Amino acid sequence: MKTRDKYLTGILLVLIGVLLGMILMFFRDGAISLDLAEVRVTDIDRSAEPFWSSDDLEKMDDRFLFRSVAKSVTPTVVYIETVITTRNRQAQSEEEEDNRFWERFLPPRVRTVGSGVLISSDGYILTNNHVIEGAVNDGITVTLEDKRTLEARVVGRDPSTDLAVLKIDETNLPSVIIGNSDLIEVGEWVLAVGNPFRLRSTVTAGIVSALSRDVQIINDARRVESFIQTDAAINKGNSGGALVNTSGELIGINTAIATQSGNYQGYGFAVPSNLALKVSRDLIEFGEVKRGMLGVTIQSVDDRMARNAGLDGITGVMIMRVLEDGAAARSGLQSSDIVLEVNGESVNESNQLQEKVAMYRPEDEVELTIWRDNEVIKKVVVLDELEQPEPPQNTFNPETGSEPELDDWEEIPEGGRERGIEQQRFESLGFILRALSTPEDSDRFNIYIHRVVPGSEAWNRGLREGFEIIEMDGEPVSDLQIVEQIITDSIKNNRSLTLKILTEEGATGYFQIN
Description:
It is a single chain. This protein has helices at residues 3-29, 54-60, 66-73, 94-99, 129-132, 273-286, 303-309, 327-330, 350-358, 457-460, 480-492; strands at 77-85, 109-118, 124-128, 135-143, 149-151, 153-158, 163-167, 177-178, 189-194, 202-213, 227-230, 242-245, 249-257, 268-272, 292-293, 296-300, 317-322, 338-342, 345-346, 365-372, 375-382, 384-385, 421-426, 431-437, 445-452, 468-472, 475-476, 497-502, 508-513. By secondary structure, it is α+β, with helices and mostly antiparallel strands. The chain has a seven-stranded antiparallel beta sheet with strand order 5-4-1-2-3-7-6. Strands 23, 24, 25, 26, 27, 28 and 29 form a seven-stranded antiparallel beta sheet that branches. Strands 9-10-11-14-13-12 form a six-stranded antiparallel β-barrel. The radius of gyration is 36 Å and the shape is elongated. Mean pLDDT is 78; it is low at 88-97 and 391-416.
């Protein structure tokens, strides 16, 4: 090969190498892009309306009603703020005591929150008594769903049912439809509407978990507790709010929760709407509740009572004591009678009977179906008026800083057992027991209820002074020390205690205390 050809070949190879290098650089830097696959535009389908209409969904399942129910009920539930004083708060230090000098004249105040339900278009609001209890003058404000805030005044309160009625000066307001709480059943879907933790207009859903619950949360000697239990989430601030069914009807006023943490744990309680409606009408019309009274002490029938009475099943409420000259006594009711029905509606718990009677006013007639001497009889009772309790007297002694004792002597006197008498107070239950030795045997004692604290557990269960305790949990008792041990064990193990009682009239009955 000639020299010239060699040079030309070398230059050509160099050029080829440079060209290949440039091509590789373009590829690496993205200057040249190549389509590696054919791409076509894809159409995405989009619907302007849901496949299933709201009407179709509502026919499939009650849960699809929640949206429409929430829209109709939420405007009727209001947010309540209450200003209360804390004048009873104790100073923690001398410095704080000095700083609180002016608080003696202008006591500190705090704000509490809750819910309420508009029951009329002219501004009547149903809520819980504990939501507005202790409010200062002009200390209650109501915020509507449309964010308007108005001052409210108290129309009336009923501590025995934990209900109250407020009034705001406004018209043409949305109001709730009140349903019949007697028609609800366990397992039904319900919605709770309120303002938990200041979160306005919150709606939660659940079912009716139980009916006629007596959970002893109302601190009143004449309390009426027959709550609807629900697992719809209820928290602080829900009190006074609405519990509604899937028709949007009010069936309860949310009142309390059962919890160990202070927040929702699956157990909420509501006052039935029938009772709430009766109470609200009385408060609006009279400023207080007009409640009829049978004039009896009662106890739910248990297995032992049913067998002794000859009942086929465990049903009804036993009359333990008939008050002299009361409505029941005038109608011929007797101790050991078992009430099966009130105006044709069955009652199986003592609180159910209380609720049924609480629905009527004084002078109203109620027909009771009674089981007596193995047969069913009817009795018509004209109810008396339940007298309002007298305000508690201030028994505090400023000189000694103490309160007087319930009785002349509190402790067992020295040598009391040798003299045939003993006494012991049981503060947790609210009574004082006195033991008197029998004439036949000085070592055997008759145990009597000597004092009962009004409003205590014993008082609320119907125990009264003069009752003799015959048995405890089926065991005969004749020694106060044994009684004390039985009560201590029941409290320690957190179980109820059944007392067999002999009344002063000679009637025998059973009382259960917790």
